[in-house]
User: Which sequence fits this backbone?
């Protein structure tokens, strides 16, 4: 079956996770990256890939931006996320970036929470529209302002991600940067399919 014509109902349900070996390598890669990369490098990657996502989605007219396209799965992305529109991708980044920034603030303040992080809770709405573009820009500005006021992100309190285990504030920030890269690759595939 052609990727663009496959029925979204054939996709795995949200929260189904990743193949085990892929999850293992991603977990190991995140740990290594977060140990080697400092705050400025991680934030630079986070912002660079966010700008690239915006540069792909901004020129689209509203009808095109709302069109969901089924693409091959990007490594690090659940099967259920394969049939999104450009605006859905941006909305997902808004949802995740807000949640991770809240987690970073909590952990950097020496606190934690009993709230379970669930991948199924951060899926976008099929109704996502052009308003998400400005929301994403606002979230990116908030990240820069907030992180400038936090002295130390490494060590201290940790909170578990369902795929990557307990992470400190710096590891959560590193995860956000790598997450942008995954959805940048997805955006590239979606936009190329829409041309």
Assistant:
């Amino acid at each position: 079956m052609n990727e663009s014509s496959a029925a979204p109902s054939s996709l795995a349900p949200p929260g189904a996770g990743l193949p085990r070996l892929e999850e293992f390598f991603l977990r190991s890669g995140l740990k290594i990256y977060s140990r080697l990369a400092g705050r400025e490098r991680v934030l630079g990657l986070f912002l660079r890939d966010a700008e690239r996502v915006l540069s792909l989605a901004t020129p689209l007219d509203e009808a095109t931006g709302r069109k969901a396209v089924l693409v091959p799965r990007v490594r690090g992305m659940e099967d259920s996320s394969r049939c999104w529109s450009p605006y859905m991708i941006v909305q997902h980044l808004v949802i995740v970036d807000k949640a991770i920034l809240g987690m970073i603030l909590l952990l950097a303040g020496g606190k934690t929470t009993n709230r379970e992080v669930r991948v199924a809770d951060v899926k976008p709405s099929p109704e996502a529209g052009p308003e998400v573009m400005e929301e994403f820009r606002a979230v990116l500005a908030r990240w820069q302002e907030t992180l400038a006021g936090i002295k130390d992100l490494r060590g201290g309190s940790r909170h578990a991600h369902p795929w990557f285990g307990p992470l400190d504030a710096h590891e959560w920030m590193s995860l956000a940067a790598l997450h942008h890269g995954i959805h940048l690759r997805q955006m590239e595939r979606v936009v190329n399919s829409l041309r």
User: Anything to note?
Assistant: Helices lie at 20-36, 39-57, 62-65, 86-108, 131-148, 169-194. The chain has one domain: 41-72+79-194.
